[in-house]
Amino acid sequence: MCGIAGYFSPEGRFNKKHLETVTNALAHRGPDASGYFLENAVGLGHRRLSIIDLSEAANQPFFSRNKRFAVVFNGEIYNYKEVETELKKSDKNFQPRTSSDTEIITEAFVVWGVEFVHKLNGMFTIAVYDREEKSLFLFRDRMGIKPVYYHYDGHNFVFASEIKALTKIVIDRTLNLNALKDYLFLEYVPGEQTIFKNISKLSAGFFLKITEKGIEKKQYYDIADKYLENTANTEDYYKEQFTEHLRKSVKYQSISDVPIGAFLSGGTDSSLICSIFQEQNTTPVNTFTIGFDVKEFDETAYAGKVAEILKTNHSLTRVGEKEALGIAEHICDFYDQPFAAPSTIPSYIVCKKAREHVTVALSGDGGDELFMGYGYYNWQQRIDKLNAVGGYPARKLASTLLNLLGNQSKRAARVFDYSDYEKIWLHIWSQEQYMFSENEISSLFAEDYKHTTLTGDWRKIRAMKIHPFEQIALFDIKHYLADNLLYKMDIASMASSLEVRVPYLDHNLVEFAVNVPLEYKINKREQKYLMKKALRNYLPDDLIYRKKWGFPAPLGTWLQSELSFMIDKYLSKQELEKHGLFNHDFVKKLVSNFRSGETFHYKRIWALIVFQMWFNRYMENEK
Fold it and tell me: What ranges make up the beta strands (E) of 154-285?
């Protein structure tokens, strides 16, 4: 795991000094070594976190044997030994100089060109410069586990692993208002856009080719293309195949020349990863969890029981309001886009704690998306039933009646109150995350807002001949996973120089999972059905069939107590007038409702606070 940066600047806008500035801003991603390549209009920079082959010979930039290609790479290629074997078949004289995966992908590009990416199993962003043809290539992995961002003015191109590295050099930091509104709707910035109008994100499964003629963008992988027909088989078959895929993935992703551990929340996803990880090791593996002072958010007892049964070397960290306070006001130092997920705080803490013991950790991210573990599948079902009875009037009536009841019912009322049935899934997603509705965003900005960024792709997914639940899961895999969950963990882990790997997102396992029949994902309202069946090989039922929290944070409770001052500090009229974006009367009423007992507004309050902190950090202090 590392940080990469670079430029292609035929007009000379970017130079060595810019490259050093951007690369050094990524030092937390790679504290072990740094390196640069500079030639004519091109520069590549690298910060290394040493994981495989700890020698200096594996430092980057890396050059092909023929000296034609220069490479910088962020991530891990788990099947690099198999790729090495293929390379030796094509060239019997090939003998690696190192035991690093970087050398293998460099020589793979020599042999197969851009098609080399199909040979790779792993998480990566890779930059390759062709010194002969004077072209720069930039690849992002299939699932979007590793990020990369870039700025292009029509002639000059610059990229980096994090946005905040690009803000260190002379790039116009004009606010992207559409991205801001999308953030308030979804809790994260979706799609290729970023919060800055002049910085873009390379999407999962895409690569860029940059030359003096311009940029070419091409998609090399789309999970939507991997759905098959007539895949029905027995439950035992799917359970065995799933377990074998996961065992292979965990074994691949356990390869490391430095200490490795795993996160353990006590829920299905992490428990299954830890069970297989421990099964494959003869000594106790390191597992990590965190707990909260707020009892209903504390799962440490379950995680402890799982660790005891598996006989792992378990570490527990407890998080109180004071520690949360210490991190909350600095969260935007790490997250360089507004990001409202409350789990940023515990994610950062558990990564920081894990880094005291290991350099690599396995995570359970992806299980919910592959096996339908979220509650909003039930909301979709309820709305579909109401829609069949009476369309929007029926949904509106349900909303009106629910509004007459208590807090939770008022929150549910918001889910039903949306007229456009074709786009209703995006509305459900927004409200399930406690975020602002389209109408609220329109009021907040005093101008009309309709979410369009993801609408086109949602319509394509809706046109696919798969079950509505499978359509929702596909949307989650393509968007929520890459732009939210994986972004969250990449930033949280890299802030502590920790590499986090995600065994559920081995692309072979993902392709298998999307073709598992629906009844083995949700069976009689039992979600993640097949995963739980597989977990029964390791744990008793009372630890499997229970409600799972993961690593959430009791943010609503904190905002009513120790973090209450943040509302007054960041949502005052004076603070809001700094940028003049939000309707102060709307915000004032929202705060009043929250403090009067409508606690379900906590996420909207937090989303506004996060933006205010982000604005102060990246728009005010860096001018």
Answer: 157-160, 200-201, 206-211, 214-219, 260-263
Distance CA 3, CA 47 (A): 5
Rounded-to-integer distance, Cα 476 and Cα 433, Å: 13
Give the number of domains in the chain: 3
Contact 67, 93 (CB under 8 A): no
Within-domain flag for 226? no
Asked if residue 178 and residue 86 are part of one domain, the reply reads: yes
As a whole number of Å, the end-to-end CA separation of the chain is 31
- Tell me the pLDDT of the chain averaged across its residues: 92
Closest CA to 352 of 551, 162, 607: 551
Residue 11 resides in a domain: yes
Q: Which of 134, 135, 137 is nearest to 116 (CA)?
A: 137
- pLDDT tens across 418-447, in order? 888 888 889 999 998 999 999 999 999 999
Range of the domain at 125: 2-221
Tell me: do 286 and 142 sit in the same domain.
no
**pLDDT reading at 455 higher than 80:** yes
Residue 497, φ and ψ in degrees, nearest 5? 55, 45
CA angle (98, 100, 101) in 5-degree steps: 135
Confidence of residue 53 (pLDDT cuts 50, 70, 90): confident
Helical spans, DSSP H, in 436-583: 438-445, 455-462, 468-475, 486-494, 507-514, 529-535, 541-544, 555-559, 564-570, 573-576
Name the residue among 342, 333, 354 with its Cα closest to residue 290: 354
248 and 199 co-located in one domain: no
In this predicted structure, the answer to whether residue 477 has a pLDDT above a threshold of 50 is yes
Phi, psi of 84 (to 5 degrees): -60, -40
Q: How far apart are CA 598 and CA 408, in angstroms?
A: 9
45 plus 167 within the same structural domain: yes
- In terms of domains, do 500 and 610 share one? no
φ/ψ bin of 160: left (φ > 0), alpha (ψ from -120 to 50), beta (otherwise): beta
Residue 404 burial (10 A CB sphere; 0-12, 13-18, 19+) = exposed
How far apart CA 139 and CA 125 sit, in angstroms, is 5
Please give the DSSP secondary-structure letter assigned to residue 551: S
| Type of residue found at 549 | W
Residues 38 and 155 in one domain: yes
Spatial distance between the Cα atoms of 158 and 150, rounded to a whole number of angstroms: 6
Taking a C-beta distance cutoff of 8 angstroms, is the pair 66, 130 a contact? no
Alpha helices (H) in 403-481, listed in sequence order: 407-416, 424-432, 438-445, 455-462, 468-475
> Is 12 among the domain residues?
yes
CA pair distance 173, 116, nearest whole angstrom: 35
Burial 446-485 (b: 16+ CB within 10 A, else e): eeebebebbeebbeebeeeebeeebbbbbbbbbbbbbbbb
Distance CA 323, CA 563 (A): 11
> Are 359 and 243 within one domain?
yes
